[in-house]
Design a protein that fits this description.
Protein name: DNA polymerase subunit gamma-1
Number of strands: 30
Radius of gyration: 40 Å
Helix content: 25-40%
Cofactor: Mg(2+)
Family: Belongs to the DNA polymerase type-A family.
Distance between the termini: 65 Å
Enzyme class: transferase
Largest sheet: 7 strands, mixed
GO molecular function: 3'-5' exonuclease activity; DNA binding; DNA-directed DNA polymerase activity
Strand content: 5-15%
Length: about 1350
């Protein structure tokens, strides 16, 4: 953001915890349905939530801190396509992907046809039709293909042959190189690409190409080498498999062992894993086509012909094996198509939202532009690397020769040197050979003098360690930093203690026994004694103790090379250093050692990245015939060249669906002492273009904190959420500063701790990391510090059922600043079918709880965070694509590296592209908030802090990118915040809508893709709109709701998460019980009084007539003398039962039930309330003839009332005015029952239902009299609409009809019965009961006859409906 400013507080919107929210103008645009009509009122926080949030922030020492204000920006944001932000994303996702999805779905349903028996060896494409026709074509004719490309890596990166399968034919492509291996001028004729025909990026020209690791094949397609986007999109079956059935890194080694055991029929191994970790083995596989096709399709492939391609050094070998290789390629296509048919439908089930599919298609269309500077870059790096390597080698050689010289001066000098004494100073064995004397006896024969003779012919006068370094071919020793002797010659030390190599423990360091300064809780290493195997003379166990050199993976791991890349930072911090004796000169061995170390550090990056960088496939416009014009790149003159690189991306390469690419997505930023680290800056925009992009600010941290804040229905309600939104580095209130204070480390180091923790890493990870950053700390102290950090942040987990069931249904974290977040993450990760909260994408089968139980929790929690981050990226890309096409912005997606998104944009459109990125970010963040139930967004996260407009690809526009191979600073680019962007776009104008733009639909998203809150609202609305009620806006047809009150036990769980101890939680439970009981008693008394008053006021005077009068109204009628009766009244159960043992819920926070999921109830936190008991009374007679709407009952009590005196039956004309006033307008959350006993319980059905039952069913009165309620001229009034539709049999699957009232009720409530049928059943039941009484009495009275006639009329009328 731009500089923080103090804006007038009165003009800003703030939420209940003082977080600045969106400007009203922006809020009305991105949350239109939540303003004015009150639709989103149920999403507002309750007073209890606000109170709990403030208390939590106070405990974290955050409440009352000065809020961070940002410019209260607003501008004319484009209108949403739909009534809500989720409708908008659904509609633009459909616009972006519907045609491609139809092509893919149709193709997935078509079986492959047989391969051709013989392939023609002619250049270009040959079509083999299903009807047997063979013809030569310029390019394949259909729109959807599965294809595979083959190359000869040792000879060229260009393709040599390919096969493609369509719905109508097979296609074979042969490179001209295979026909004519050499050009006219004698060069290799390999630079050819295959064409799939012209495909403009317009409607009607869409094409889908499918392959396994299709990014590799895409790089050989001619149409992709253009700066203009084409209409071809790519689907990768490897990515589909990973998203559906992929393995996480923790599972892969186990799967490989299990697979080998299966092949080798290792029954012992298989039996050991049968009931434990082996469950995920049968629902997953590694990613190769060989294993994927075997897993999904039971195809056993023969990959042997591939060896010909991999090992060929001459194109003639390919020519000789042409038929076999084409058959091999075709079989790969057949297997790939079979895998696609299996995985694509599963992928659509896992990721049902159109934005997910559209985002994957976008990710697969990346490209990079380079020029001749690319080849210069590689040349510079190799030249400098070779020079430094030679210098390092020469310096190490000099140190080796110095050691020899010192030995010659004093052959015992090394014995007191802790480093050189480790070397083998033994010389080859020599024997004394007697001379051959002359016959004269004076002297010896020439050459036969007595002497010492060595049988070794190689360097007999050099020690063993020196001889091991000798290179016979070059007649000199060869040394590098990778050899074990290098740390010894360099005399490396750890905190001043010499390094000693052990064959048993790797590199160690020795500490004198009498050294009191080095204090550690670690036990010294033990070594074999002199007569034991593995004994080493270098270890003086009498005078020294030895410890392992710390390894980044933790204790117990051996360090192989202290000069490796992982220890460079220790050299920078002088923890790992070279010994320098006092008074040592600059030209000493110590100086040479330091120079060697510096040189080694410079080469570290290039050593690791060199092969991957040189392997990049660059297609140059001047190297391929006719490609220059097709690329569309501006000309750079005769002597300069331009090219395009297509990063070979696996669009869903991990189980979190993150994209994977081995070079560009792992590239680091430029560093001054790292050769080649300026890699990204060698991607340059062509003349007239700019690279426009942004880094998503703390994307995954914000998503994680938002999931915790969602429990309070407001942003910044948790400590983590507040620090993410309001914390600052300067005030030390941001997350990273807080962690740094706790751990005593730098803020940059704290970032690694924080993200690791959020991704699910535990205390052991933090312990190892702390020891890496602070090598002087021992494991015990490091673990204690790590534990303190996790207690302060993550909190303490309650795992014992007798403790957590007091307030919740499962173990939970409490007492930490991040406890709310982790409870939300784990609730999602442990659901039966975990889904991301925004786009509803499911987890891979290999990590579903069904197959992993409680294992791999780190990977599962990490999946929630990172997969949500992928949703964020996909929504951002789809939003940008929509705005680019709508406003004709000349831009194309380039690449996404982690949280960096980059576009290639025409220079004149760069400001509009920057504005489009800001709008896309606003929409994306708003969508996350909306889907998590918060219909608002903080102003501070609505926009990118800056959008970069640059001419090269780099992390920041002001980076000079100075490295050992890049001496000249690169000119800086421009960085625009939202205010600056608005200035350049006339206040936020994206421009005119393109004339040929086809707008997205604006209808509602399907119910199954809507948020939990929206699905609940739709279900309520569908029940209430049948008859217009006072709570309906008659113009808009929208139901107006009152804010939903959170149950007290929910508020208690909110409070419990911030409490530091279980005893504090138990005290809170006791306090809540007492408060709730008092309120409940008062409510019971009030209900009794109200019911008694209603009955009393509803009774009329006696009448002598035997026939009912229409003018006489009455609520009840009795044909006998008045007597004490019981009116059963239904109300909420006693709160004492609500704070008992909780029942484990089958679903997670945003998960789904595995089978039989009702979309209306998906994710609605069913089963949250505990079971309560029926206080009094039985419903055996009261409900035996009713089939209610899939609802359980509430507690039933008997209220003694005096029955009205009457001698005539009275007609009921429906609900009277005073009765209507008794019907509460309320919204209840879905209810559930957790166990079934002899008594029936419920917590949803409101008192209004009891009143309605009392009015319209004579079963609530004394059976000894004939009580009738007749409505001769009207239908019986409908029951009040209820707000919970939880099928009883979902929680009582085994319930059957029995003598108990509860069993009969549950049995009759298995299905939803329409109100009309309920009326019919009610009238029939009344008649049946009356007939039974009449048969016992032997006849009917006049009153009874009239009543029966009325019932017959009523039944006829109801039936006619």
């Amino acid at each position: 953001m731009s500089a923080q400013v103090e804006a007038p507080r009165t003009s800003m919107r703030k939420n209940e915890v003082d977080v600045q929210m969106l400007h009203p103008g922006l809020h009305s645009k991105v949350f239109p349905s939540s303003t004015g009509t009150g639709v989103a009122a149920e999403s507002r926080p309750t007073p209890e939530m606000i109170k709990c949030a403030i208390s939590h922030l106070e405990k974290s020492n955050l409440w009352g801190k000065d809020p961070i204000l940002v410019p209260d920006t607003t501008f004319p944001v484009p209108h949403l396509r739909g009534n809500t932000i989720e409708d908008h994303f659904y509609n633009i996702g459909v616009r972006d992907s519907a045609t491609y999805k139809k092509l893919a779905v149709d193709f997935s349903q078509l079986p492959s046809h047989p391969l051709p028996d013989t392939w023609l060896m002619q250049e270009g494409w040959t079509r083999y039709g299903k009807d047997g026709t063979i013809s030569r074509v310029e390019y394949p004719l259909e729109k959807t293909f599965t294809f595979d490309v083959e190359t000869v890596p040792a000879l060229s990166k260009f393709p040599v042959m390919a096969c493609a399968l369509s719905s109508e034919a097979w296609y074979g492509w042969v490179s001209p190189w295979l026909i004519n291996p050499q050009t006219v001028d004698g060069h290799q004729n390999d630079q050819h690409l295959m064409s799939f025909g012209p495909s403009p990026n317009k409607a009607g020209h869409e094409k889908i190409l499918i392959g396994h690791n299709v990014g590799y094949d895409r790089a050989r397609v001619l149409e992709e080498y253009s700066i203009e986007q084409n209409g071809i999109r790519y689907l990768d079956t490897m990515s589909l498999h990973v998203a559906v059935s992929g393995l996480c890194s923790q599972q892969r080694p186990g799967w490989i062992k299990y697979s080998k055991a299966t092949e080798n029929e290792d029954t012992a191994y298989l039996d050991a894993f049968k009931d434990t970790t082996g469950k995920y083995f049968d629902v997953s596989a590694v990613n190769s086509l060989l294993q994927v096709s075997k897993f999904h399709c039971s195809i056993h492939m023969d990959k042997a012909p591939r060896n010909i391609l991999m090992e060929a050094k001459d194109i003639k070998l390919i020519q000789d094996n042409f038929q076999d290789l084409m058959q091999y390629c075709g079989k790969d296509v057949t297997a790939t198509h079979a895998v696609f048919q299996q995985t694509f439908p599963k992928y659509l089930e896992k990721c049902p939202h159109p934005v997910s599919f559209a985002g994957v298609l976008q990710m697969g269309s990346s490209f990079l532009t380079v020029n001749e500077g690319w080849t210069d870059y590689i040349t510079r790096c190799n030249r400098l690397y070779n020079e430094i390597s030679e210098n390092v080698e020469s310096k190490l050689s000099l140190l080796a020769h110095q050691a020899l010289e010192n030995y010659e001066k004093d052959n015992a000098f090394y014995k007191d040197d802790p480093w050189l004494s480790q070397l083998n100073w033994e010389f080859p064995k020599r024997e004394w050979k007697e001379g051959i004397p002359l016959k004269s006896g004076n002297g010896y024969r020439k050459g036969c003098e007595p002497r010492w003779v060595c049988r070794a012919k190689l360097l007999p006068d050099k020690p063993e360690w020196y001889r091991d370094l000798w290179d016979s071919s070059e007649k000199r020793i060869r040394l590098s930093t990778r050899q074990r002797v290098a740390p010894i010659l360099l005399k490396l030390q750890w905190h001043g203690y010499p390094l000693v190599h052990s064959g048993l423990y790797g590199w160690t360091f020795q500490v004198p026994m009498d050294d009191k300064e080095y204090v550690t809780r670690l036990d010294p290493l033990t070594f074999p004694l002199e007569n034991e195997e593995g004994y080493q003379k270098a270890f003086d166990l009498q005078n020294y103790r030895y410890y392992r050199l710390p390894h980044k993976s933790g204790e117990g791991m051996n360090v192989g090379n202290p000069l490796s890349k992982g220890y460079v930072s220790h050299f920078d911090d002088h923890i790992l250093s070279s010994y320098s004796p006092p008074g040592d000169s600059d030209d000493s061995s110590t100086k040479l050692a330091k120079q060697a170390l510096d040189m080694n550090a410079q080469c570290a990056y290039w050593v690791s990245a060199k092969e991957r960088i040189e392997d990049q496939f660059v297609v140059w416009e001047k190297d391929v015939n006719g490609l220059g014009k097709r690329m569309g790149l501006p000309s750079r003159g005769e002597t300069r060249n331009s090219g395009i690189i297509l990063p070979q991306i696996v669009t869903m390469g991990t189980v979190t669906r993150r994209a994977v690419e081995k070079t560009w997505m792992t590239a680091s930023n430029a560093k001054k002492n790292r050769i080649g680290s300026e890699l990204k800056s060698n991607v340059e925009a062509p003349a007239g273009y700019k690279i426009v992009g942004a880094d998503v600010d703390s994307e995954e941290l914000w998503i994680s904190s938002l999931m915790g804040d969602a429990q309070f229905r407001m942003h910044g309600a948790t400590a983590l959420g507040w620090m993410t939104l309001q914390g600052t580095k300067s005030a030390g209130t941001d997350l990273h500063s807080k962690t740094a204070q706790i751990m005593g480390i730098s803020r940059d180091q704290a970032k690694i701790f924080n993200y690791g923790r959020i991704y699910g890493a535990g205390v052991n990870f933090a312990t190892r990391l702390l020891q890496q950053f602070n090598s002087s700390i021992d494991t015990v102290e490091a673990k204690q510090k790590a534990q303190d950090l996790y207690t302060a942040t993550k909190g303490v987990k309650i795992s014992r059922p007798q403790e957590y069931e007091v307030v919740h249904d499962r173990p939970f974290w409490h007492g930490g600043t991040e406890s709310y977040m982790f409870n939300s993450l784990e609730r999602t990760a442990t659901a039966e079918d975990p889904r991301t909260p925004t786009l509803g994408c499911g987890i891979t089968d290999a990590l579903r709880p069904k197959y992993t139980e409680n294992q791999f929790m780190t990977s599962r929690v990490n999946w929630v965070v990172q997969s949500s981050g992928v949703d964020y990226l996909h929504m951002l890309l789809v939003s940008m694509n929509y705005l680019i096409h709508k406003y004709d912005i000349k831009a194309r997606f380039m690449l996404c590296v982690h949280d960096e998104v980059r576009y290639m944009v025409k220079e004149e459109d760069s400001a509009r592209a920057a504005l489009a990125m800001q709008v896309s970010n606003l929409w994306t963040r708003a969508m996350f908030s909306y889907k998590l139930g918060i219909y608002d967004l903080p102003q501070s996260v609505a926009f990118f802090s800056a959008v970069d407009i640059d001419h090269v690809f780099r992390k920041e526009v002001n980076m000079d990118c100075i490295t050992p191979t890049q001496k000249t600073p690169i000119p800086h680019g421009t960085s625009l915040d939202i205010e600056q962007t608005l200035e350049l776009t006339e206040g936020g104008q994206l421009g005119e809508i393109a004339t040929d733009f086809v707008e997205a639909e604006d209808g509602p998203a399907p119910l199954e893709l809507r948020s939990v809150h929206e699905r609940q609202r739709v279900m309520i609305t569908s029940e209430q709109t049948s008859n217009t009620s006072p709570d309906m806006d008659t113009e808009s047809g929208v139901i107006l709701h009152k804010p939903m009150e959170a149950p007290q036990e929910d508020c208690l769980f909110l409070e419990a998460q911030t409490m530091s101890s279980i005893s504090e939680i138990k005290k809170a439970v006791a306090r809540k019980k007492a408060e709730a009981l008092a309120l409940w008693k008062a409510k019971v008394e009030a209900e009794k009084q109200a019911a008694a008053k209603m009955i009393k006021s509803g009774s009329g005077d006696d009448n002598d007539d035997n026939s009912p009068s229409d003018s006489q109204k009455g609520l009840v009628k009795s044909a006998s003398a008045p007597k004490q009766a019981s009116l059963r009244h239904v109300r909420d159960a006693s709160p004492l039962f609500k704070y008992g043992k909780k029942v484990q819920k089958p679903g997670g926070f945003w998960g789904r039930r595995a089978e039989g999921v009702d979309p209306a109830n998906h994710g609605s936190d069913q089963g949250k309330e505990p079971v309560t008991e029926v206080k009094t009374g039985s419903l055996e007679e009261d409900v035996e003839s009713y089939e209610l709407s899939d609802m359980a009952l509430t507690e039933v009590v008997e209220i003694p009332v005096a029955k009205a005196k009457s001698t005539k039956p009275k007609k009921s004309s429906g609900l009277r005015d005073y009765e209507k006033e008794l019907l509460p307008d309320f919204v209840e959350k879905p209810a559930t029952a957790s166990k079934r006993k002899s008594r029936l319980t419920n917590e949803v059905l409101a008192p209004s239902m009891a009143i309605w039952l009392a009015q319209h069913d004579d079963g609530f009165h004394n059976r000894s009299t004939v009580d009738t309620i007749t409505t001769p001229n009207k239908q019986p009034p409908s029951p009040p609409k209820m707000h919970s539709f939880v099928p009883v049999d979902k929680y009582y699957p085994n319930s059957t009809s029995s003598a108990s009232a509860s069993s009969r009720f549950m049995s009759s409530s298995r299905r939803y019965v329409p109100p009309l049928k309920q009326k019919q059943a009610r009238v029939k039941s009344q008649m049946q009961r009356r007939n039974s009484v009449v048969s016992e009495k032997g006849g009917m009275s006049t009153t009874e006859l009239v009543s029966d006639r009325n019932d017959l009329d009523q039944l006829a009328k109801v039936t006619s409906e």
